Amino acid sequence: QITTLINHKDKPKRSDKTLQAIQRVGQAVNLAVGRFVTVGEAIANENHELKEEMSVACIEARRAGETIAQLTDVASLDHPESDSHITIFTDKTGVVKAARLLLSSVTKVLVLADRIVIKQIITSRNKVLATMEQLEKVSSFQEFVQIFSQFGNEMVEFAHLTGDRQNDLKDEKKKARMAASRAVLEKCTMMLLTASKTCLRHPDCESARINKDGVFQRMRLALEQVIEIVTDSRPNGENEMAPISIYSGIKEFKNKVEGLRENLYFLSKENLSTMLEVILEHTEDFTDSAYTSHEHREHILELSKQAKMELEQLVSVWMQAQNQKTKDLMEDLEVAILKTCQCMNELKREVHNAATSLAAELLKYHTDHMVLKALKITGVEGNLEAVAEYTCKLSEQKEQLVEMCRLLRHVSGTEPLEITCIHAEDTFQVTGPQIISAAETLALHPSSKIAKENLEVFCEAWESQLSDMSLLLREINDVFEGRRGEKRVYLSLPRPGKHNANLKALKPVKLDTEEQAKIAKLGLELHLLTSDVDSETEKWEDQENEIVQHGQGMSSMAYSMYLFTRGEGLLKTTQDLFHQAEIFATEGTKLASALHTLSDQVHDDDKPLLLLEAEKLVSMCKQLQTTAKASAQGKTATFTKVDACILKTRNVMTLLCQLLPLCCKLLRKNKAGNGYLKPAPPWKEDRIRTGTNARTPERRVDTFGIKSLENHVTNMTFLESK
Q1: Contact 72, 2 (CB under 8 A)
Q2: Tell me, which fold does domain 1-76+89-113 have in CATH?
Q3: In this predicted model, what pLDDT tens digit does every residue of 81-97 receive, in sequence order?
Q4: Does the keyword Cytoplasm apply (predicted)?
C-alpha cells in the first residue's frame, strides 16, 4: 500500500474515485500501523530491559502512520486549487519521508521483538538444562518422579517456543537443522525416562549407567544446536563447515561451464580443473565402499575418466576462443560445453543409482528387524553369550546403514535433505551402541520389567529411523526426477543445442534490465498465485492424488517462470521460457482430464460446474500452447511473446486457485470421512511447511511426545522402588 502511494501518477485531473482510493489507502496504512504498534507496546511493557528502545520505535511508527493519513486526506478536494493544507499532491516528498520513517521504525520493532523471542528460547533451554542436572543426580524414585514432572512441563514450553521459531525461519537449511535437533529431543525425552528408571532400579550396573549417560549427552548436544541456530552462532567462533556433496559439486561445476557461453574470461582453467578434482575425490566414497556393486564401481570409474577427457577438450577449445573468437570456434565451444555437461549428468545419475539401489536393498533386508527381536528374546532369557553374538550383528548392521546415509547425502539434491541424511547417520551411530548397552543390562537382569521396557524404547527409535529412511529415499528420488526439491523446479530444462541439432538456428535470448522492469508486475502476480496454489494443495491429505500432483507441477513451473522475469532460476533464455510454457499447458490439459474423471464421481448437481471449469482450463491451455509455439523474430516480437506467455500462465493459475478449493469441497461432500483433506491445525501447533515438501525429521515432534511421556510418569508407582 505504501508503494501504491509513492508510485501514484500525478495527473492534472483527479476523479472522485481516485481521491477516495488514495484516502482509503492512507487510512488503511495508519490503522495497520496502529494495530502493529499496540502489540509492540504490549511487548515493551512485559520486557523492561528493552522497554525504552521499543517505546521509541513504536512512537516513531505511530507518528509516521499519522503523517501518511494526514497527507492522504484528500477525498473532499473536488477542487484541489482551493486546497489550503498540504497533501500528497502538493508535497509528495513528505509521503516519501514518512514512508521511510515508518519502514525504519517498523524494522526496529521487529528486530527488538526478535531479540526477546531469542532470549525466551535461551531462558527455556537453561531451565531444561538445570532440571536435567537434577535428574542426573537423583537417588530415589520419589524424587525422580517429582523432578521429571517439572522437566516434562519445561520441555513442553521449549517445544512450543522452538516450534514457532522453526516456522519463522526463512533459511531452509536452518529449518532442517532445527527439525533434526527437535527430533532428537523428542526421542531422547522418552529414552531419558526409561534409562533413568533402569539406572535407579540397578544402581550398580555399569551398562545401565553408560546407557543413561549417552542419552543425557545427546540431549545436551541437541539443545546446544538449537541455540546455535536461533542465535546464528557457533561455539568458540568456529565457522560452520557445510558438507560438500557430489550433487552440489556437479551443479556448481556445470553452472561455471555453462557460464562460458556468456563470458570466456570470468574464471581460470585451473579453477575448473580443481572443481572437477574435488568431485572425483568424492566419487571415491562410492568406489572405495565395500557396499558398492562391481558394476556401479566400474561405471563410475569410466565416467570419471571420461569427465577428465571432456574437460581437457573443453579447455583446449576455450583457450583458442579467447585468442580468436570465430564463428566456428564458438560452435565448437558450444559442443564441448554440451558434451562436458552431458558427461557430468551421466556421472550424477550413476552415483545416484548406486546410492539409491544400495539403500533400497538394505532397507528391504532389514524390515523384519530380526536382530532386534533376537536381542529382546535372548536378553529376557539372560543368555549373555547369545546377546554378545547379536550385538555384533547389530554393529555390522549399523555400519551398513551409516555408510548408506553417507552415500545418500552425496545424491540428496537439496541442503535440507543433506541435513536429514546427516541426522539419520548420527542417529544410527548413537542408537546402535545404546541398544547394545540396554540389551546387556537386560541380560544381566532378565526379570527386570523396567530394563525390558528400556530396551523396547531404544529398539522403537531404531525402527522409527529405518521407517524414516524409506520416506527420505523416496524424497531423494523425487528431487532427482524433478518432481520435488527447491520449490519443485523442473531439473531437466532445455539448453541451447540440446533439443536442436542445428546449433546455428538457436539464438538464446535473455531479457534485458528494461524488459525485466516492464514485466516485473506480471511476474510478481504469478509469484503470489503460486503461493496460493501451494497453500491449497497442502490442505490435501492424499498428496498422491492426481489433481494435487498436477497442481503442484503447474505451480512449480509457474514459479520458475516468475524467476525468469527476475533474471533468476533455471530458465536462462526466452527459448527456455517458451518450452516451459508448452509443458505447463500440457500439464494443465492433464489436470482437465483428471477433473473429468472426478466429475464421474460427484453428484449430478455438481457435475455441470466442474465440467464447465474443466473446459475453461482446456481452452486456456490451448491458447497458451499456441502462443508458446508461435514464431517471433526480433527483439520487440520476442518480448511481446514473453509477455503473452506470462499473462496466459497467470490466467491459468488464477483459474487453478479457484479449481483446487472447489475439488476439495466436492470430495468432502462426496467422500466424507475418507481422509482426502487434512483437518485445520490449531494455531499454536508447530508443524512446519517446507518449501521443498521434503520429509525432514520434523514429523511427530510437535510437543516432543509429551502426552505419552506423561503417561509413563503417571504409571510409575513407588512399588517399583521396593
Answers
A1: no
A2: Four Helix Bundle (Hemerythrin (Met), subunit A) (1.20.120)
A3: 444 555 655 566 777 88
A4: yes
